[in-house]
Amino acid sequence: MGLLSHGSPLSWEETKKHADHVRQHGITQFLNIYNKVKERQKDVLKWGDEVEYMLVAFDHENQKVRLVLKGEEMLDTLQGRGEKINPNHPTLWRPEYGSYMIEGTPGQPYGGTMAEFNTVEDNMRKRRQEASSLLLDNVSICTITSFPRLGCPGFTLPEFPPTPVEQGASKSLFFPDEAINKHPRFSTLTRNIRHRRGEKVAINVPIFKDRNTPTPFIERFANDPGAEAKAALPDHIYMDAMGFGMGNCCLQVTFQACSISEARYLYDQLATICPIVMALSAAAPFYRGYVSDIDCRWGVISASVDDRTKEERGLEPLKNNKYLISKSRYDSIDSYLSTCGEKYNDIDLTIDKDIYSQLTREGIDHLLAQHIAHLFIRDPLTLFEEKIHLDDANESDHFENIQSTNWQTMRFKPPPPNSDIGWRVEFRPMEVQLTDFENSAYVVFVVLLTRVILSYKLDFLIPLSKVDENMKVAQKRDAVRQGMFYFKKDISKAGNVAVDGCCTAANGTEAETEEYTLMSIDTIINGKDGVFPGLLPILNSYLENMEVDVDTRCTILNYLKLIKKRASGELMTAARWLREFVACHGDYKQDSVITDKINYDLLVRCNQIANEQVSCPELLGFSTRIKQSGNKNTPL
Ligand code: GLU
Ligand code: MG
């Protein structure tokens, strides 16, 4: 989850005093990097995935599952046995927000060859095995997006009470500080977000109204010091800590482009794909022990790190703050970066005008300058005493400080100083799937899509405000089958493409409304005669023209079949499958409550599926190999 510095974290009051210093030097650091590497060309296409995991303990005797607070310890051991003794170790491990979380990536980025698609799943398996080998028999490493009973009494092992009144990072009624990773970055972020905002974060997720769910649904909180009654909305599941959001897991992919302009082009094109793939990957229907009416984590995390003051949120007139800010730091992107995106930039963009002028004075073009000046309206949230004065020519911590706490659907990443890494973009909306097979399928789908975008010079751009509307639809329950999404009708730029992948002015500004229309995910992914060709048919024809060995082709086609069937609704999303499991559970009282026993049975099943001990055709088709029978992948 970003930059980890060591040292003594400053309080919010102290950090605030240095905010302008961090911004000024962050900009200098950005300019230094930009000037050194702006002309860099011909970096090769490389990419890598990031998978986030939770540690889950099964208490079979009491039929209860809990999150194990051992992420830090495990990270030390995994790194000690891996990257620290062998620079070519196949996996890399990183801390994540929850003390029950850990993140794994491949040891080296993947390159541009097709054959590498055939190694993705093996690498993910290796990670699962490596981590599992450190765990006791009753503990598993699970790729679940949200833990259904996160924040319910006794959800951690060891158990800790929340501390709403005492001094603490979250002051949550539900989420104990011990569940936050012990690295000071994480608790400092938590505390400083709360202090900057001037109150606890407030997350309200609509509850799923089942037959016996009380109407209105209003909770009374024991231990309530008063404010909750106001913050908790009726008919909503109320949560009050960063952990409810950043304590969720996701699946991300980062690409290195061959030049800055290719990175900007990919950033824009993929931004339009974010809501589509998020809906396709939906895996997070349950929060704090209740069934919700949403399928994705996105809005929950967004609210969980919303550090804006009342003034910035427009609830009070601006007095002590500079800007009215329309979104949380964790949200969708606000501007396209490539020249062909410019005409679709229709969202009001709040920027730091001084930074914008400085950047343009120094030769940065308008689109990139406004992007950076927009990220830099935010304050730094953490600062370490030892890291205030830096060498701007060779370090980038102040730039990264602001950059890495702008958690947007896409991230545009300049190369680190003095490295041979190129310009990169990160694709961040996907929810993590239960199995390595599914995670590989989603990752390979997105990577192949980038190849196709670049090879065929595709253009998905629509007004960014429409992408934002899509983001809202994407999180709704069953969006994959019921949602309608704005999508471009003609994605072949047919001749309007300049060498750098951006369109020329040939189609001007005429008739924008005609360019896009509402489509279902099925139409977007699988195509519909006379309406849209479909992304998968395009990928398939690309694959037909590529030289690929038989085994790799078979693997890729199997992945694409999963995507195809998820998009058509023939296979369930994880969110739908999780909902159906709960709905059919014998103990479920149609009251939207997920009891300890339901949670236990659910997680046992998820873990069996992930470890290939049982099949789950509703979710996976017949693609999974089951260990006992030793079957290799068979086509779906
Ligand atoms: N866990 C966060 C999510 O689900 C992402 C944290 C990160 O940026 O690594 O989106
Ligand atoms: Mg992460």
Automatic annotation (TrEMBL):
<comment type="function">
    <text>Catalyzes the ATP-dependent ligation of L-glutamate and L-cysteine and participates in the first and rate-limiting step in glutathione biosynthesis.</text>
</comment>
<comment type="similarity">
    <text>Belongs to the glutamate--cysteine ligase type 3 family.</text>
</comment>
<dbReference type="GO" id="GO:0005524">
    <property type="term" value="F:ATP binding"/>
</dbReference>
<comment type="pathway">
    <text>Sulfur metabolism; glutathione biosynthesis; glutathione from L-cysteine and L-glutamate: step 1/2.</text>
</comment>
<keyword id="KW-0547">Nucleotide-binding</keyword>
<keyword id="KW-0067">ATP-binding</keyword>
<comment type="subunit">
    <text>Heterodimer of a catalytic heavy chain and a regulatory light chain.</text>
</comment>
<keyword id="KW-0317">Glutathione biosynthesis</keyword>
<dbReference type="Pfam" id="PF03074">
    <property type="entry name" value="GCS"/>
</dbReference>
<dbReference type="GO" id="GO:0043066">
    <property type="term" value="P:negative regulation of apoptotic process"/>
</dbReference>
<dbReference type="InterPro" id="IPR004308">
    <property type="entry name" value="GCS"/>
</dbReference>
<dbReference type="InterPro" id="IPR014746">
    <property type="entry name" value="Gln_synth/guanido_kin_cat_dom"/>
</dbReference>
<protein>
    <recommendedName>
        <fullName>Glutamate--cysteine ligase</fullName>
        <ecNumber>6.3.2.2</ecNumber>
    </recommendedName>
</protein>
<keyword id="KW-0436">Ligase</keyword>
<dbReference type="GO" id="GO:0004357">
    <property type="term" value="F:glutamate-cysteine ligase activity"/>
</dbReference>
<dbReference type="GO" id="GO:0017109">
    <property type="term" value="C:glutamate-cysteine ligase complex"/>
</dbReference>
<dbReference type="GO" id="GO:0006750">
    <property type="term" value="P:glutathione biosynthetic process"/>
</dbReference>
